[in-house]
User: Fold these one by one.
Assistant:
Number 1:
Amino acid sequence: MERTFVMVKPDGVQRGLIGEVISRLERKGLKIVAMKMLWIQEELAREHYMEHAEKPFFQALVDYITSGPVVAMVVEGKEAVKVVRTLIGATNPIEAAPGTVRGDFGMDIGRNVVHASDSLESAEREISLFFNADEIVDYSKSGEEWLYE
Ligand SMILES: Nc1ncnc2c1ncn2[C@@H]1O[C@H](COP(=O)(O)OP(=O)(O)OP(=O)(O)O)[C@@H](O)[C@H]1O
Ligand SMILES: [Mg+2]
């Protein structure tokens, strides 16, 4: 099983899409093992998106992600990193396929509703950036035998 980091961004929270995103993760079969609302401060935003520090849109990205509260989650499942990236869709909502979160709910690359880790390495880094080990809950969920062979 893999764990990945998922976040409803400030636009998703303000537009009332927290439940929509969580519902899609749940229906897919992913298991939520940690969740909290927080207001990201500048320093954490820069750290989280440090791979983009040299990009022209970096400051706008930091301003966006610190513009209101977010909902951060750790979700678990077989190939969870890949599964969640598929479920949220392409970075630019204009190109994201219908049926994906960004394809269904976004209009602008700078307001794309959700974040999800793009690799196992970034998942581990981002999870530890947002959650202490004791905030991640180990439990078995009923029905797993109907999800996995
Ligand atoms: N060309 C761009 N112009 C403006 N904003 C951009 C651009 N490219 C990316 N961004 C913003 O920076 C974020 C991080 O870009 P990245 O390339 O990591 O895409 P992503 O992995 O699909 O998104 P995220 O990391 O937020 O899940 C994007 O979600 C988007 O909000
Ligand atoms: Mg990314």
Number 2:
Amino acid sequence: METADAVVVGGGPAGSTSARKLREAGLDVLVLDKAVFPRDKPCAGWVTPQVFEECRVDPEEYRLGGRTLQPITAFRTGLIGGRELETSWARPVSWGIRRREFDTFLLARSGARLKTGTALTSLARSREGASWIVNETIATPLVIGAGGHFCPVARSLNGGGMPEPVVAAQELELRMDDRQSRACAVVPEAPELWFCRDLRGYGWCFRKGEYLNVGLGREDRNGLPGHLNAFVEFLKAANRIPSDLRGDYKGHAYLLAPSSTRRVTGDGMVLVGDAAGLAWPESGEGIRTAVESALLAARVVAEARGDYGVARLEPYRQRLEERFGKRGRLRWARQLPEGLVSALAAVLMSSRAFTRRVLLERWFLRMGMAALEDPPAMVGPPQKGSGTYFALPGVVPVRGAGKGSVR
Ligand SMILES: Cc1cc2nc3c(=O)[nH]c(=O)nc-3n(C[C@H](O)[C@H](O)[C@H](O)COP(=O)(O)OP(=O)(O)OC[C@H]3O[C@@H](n4cnc5c(N)ncnc54)[C@H](O)[C@@H]3O)c2cc1C
């Protein structure tokens, strides 16, 4: 039987950040992902600067090797079918990346052992109940569920089939040819955000170098295809995107932090990122919350010093709520009549002050919310009988059969 101090299921931003931090804390970490990297992930690829800080990635280092990194210094916003406002800043306030490049980069530098192209197919308690047996071949005291919205670890912790108030989104990302590039009026430094009049979702149009990403996300998945179609037609009629833009729109679902009621910890189990349902409610930004939840989880795991009983992992839930707000509550806009929301939307979205200060700087960019402090790996003496050890300065502890190499 293979062993690992922790098995991370999913190698997206939540999984790779968990893996990196647990490796730094001295654990032997194995990441399973059903996909082979580089893999595509439906996502606009808009990333706030705090994410680079939290991942300890220098944008210039990232750009090396020809990866797409589009600086964003402005946003164009408006109601779909209406007029737009442009809001700009003197420096980049966000970046545009391509997920297949970004996720591969983060996963490769996590330092963990990787088993890509390997799905989680079974998860069971060992006979003596002290560890998890993953895919009948790997024994581990800790499983991190980072498999996105449909994460099998989240299902095992929460049970399947529960109706959840998901955001459903569809998008198309394609490389434009020269003619399409000339016919595209979207400015790379100024992505466009177009809001539905009922404020239940928004569409985006995002140019990253030679790539164009167009999509729309909504809180009611039934209306999605109609809203997306109307949005794309509006963009074409307004000459924002080439009229011959065609391709397969790919969809995915995710949960906003306030509406998620998923349990996030269990015995020897922690959920991070979309598996826990953590996207910011106003913007749907989920990369930052994926990374931050992974940092919070890794800290709690390190503090538990090998005792991964649910009580020792419970502080993680509390820290999530301190950071992302109370879970399982209704959003304020859902409590107002729809007519009032539409009238309010028209007034607010034409206000320059509201758009800059509230919509963009507070809700989308979270400028007042500094990057989560990411201290160096926590160290501490092993808990008696825990079987898992953390790095003490200058000591190289090894767990089990010579795994867990620690620097
Ligand atoms: C259309 C769309 C646009 C978006 N745009 C943005 C944006 O611009 N900016 C932003 O911040 N957020 C955006 N989001 C949200 C963001 O994409 C997610 O919140 C983010 O990807 C969550 O990261 P994660 O690591 O939790 O999960 P994921 O990135 O989904 O990674 C999960 C990983 O788990 C693997 N996996 C799944 N099942 C298994 C299994 N059984 N066994 C093993 N591995 C498994 C998958 O292959 C995948 O690699 C968007 C979402 C959508 C749907």
Number 3:
Amino acid sequence: MKKVLLGLMAVLAVAIGAFALYVASRQHLRFDVAPPAIAATTDSTAIARGRYLVRHLASCGGCHGDPTMREQAEAGEEIPLTGGFEFSIPPGKFYPRNITPDSATGIGAFTDGQIARALRDGVGNDGRALLPFMEMQGLSDEDLVAVISYLRSQPPVHHVVPDHQYNFLGTIVKATVLSKPVGPKETPPVRNPSGATIENGRYLVEAVANCWACHTERDYNTGQMVGAHLAGGKMPDDFNPKRIWFPPNLTSDPATGRLAQFTEDEFVARFHAGRLIPGSPMPWSEFRGLHEEDVRAIYRYLKSVPPVVHATGPAFVDKP
Ligand code: HEC
Ligand code: HEC
């Protein structure tokens, strides 16, 4: 009995040692993905579309904005995108980067192709696989040009952002489920759709506005999606460790889907009303500025998403 136990322990020790070596060997993986052929322009129409994407549709500022200026951002001010906000989640502490054109601390030294590759292919400037925070891999060529052109047009701000801090769980996740970069599910369009159409709504919901990243249940230990697409999520509050948010089901289910409670006009009014529940992580202050035809497009697309029965309950719950 003792011998068997000792033997088992030895096998276990070897397995643990081998796994530790495997994890350690995969902390600095690099991926050789060719940068998309995207070049920024100084064209004012492209920059205006870029501002609309960065400041409203894709709400880059919600994560990359100066974290000391949350109130100004809430009031609709275009705050500097200096990075520095701290996401403290089970795998560690993570910091969105400085995306102003400063060459030492921001994106000034990145090529247009490197920025495009980060957004489209999930590969960082140094070739690492990026964490799954930016679910907008399907951005069109035209919109990538717009975003990068707008980023280049901002004033540079010198601001050093701390390096990510992976804890024990984080190093395992980094070596396993998050080891590979995630690119687009289908070839992104060259030009983006527009108008109050289902096609444009699908593009905005699936490729631009991060809707499904929050409205689908995710495992916050591993970053992986575990629930049915758009059928409702569950997410921590970045400011209140006791609070859990439940982004509602956005599929067309008439009983548990939130859209059943809105006519199209009410949905437009809801988006233009901004944040109603204080502290809600949904980027309502950015979405308040969405063009009416885009909100209509989003509504029409969501109404076409096959129903999934999933009740999410109240918007948030506070743990004792
Ligand atoms: C939900 C939060 C979130 C949103 C929204 C977001 N980002 Fe990020 N971004 C991050 C985080 C976190 C990182 C760091 C990722 C990493 O290092 O693995 C990052 C990294 C980056 C990088 C650096 C890539 C590199 O090479 O290191 C760029 C460029 C970037 N984001 C641009 C944008 C732009 C442009 C938008 C809007 C279109 C945007 N981000 C929206 C969280 C976000
Ligand atoms: C950062 C996470 C996040 C993103 C991104 C996000 N949501 Fe939400 N959403 C939430 C949370 C949390 C709630 C519940 C709290 C609230 O109502 O503000 C919510 C609530 C809603 C509601 C119910 C509002 C009400 O008053 O009944 C709708 C509709 C909605 N989201 C649609 C969308 C759409 C469409 C998008 C993309 C354009 C989107 N959300 C993007 C987190 C998010």
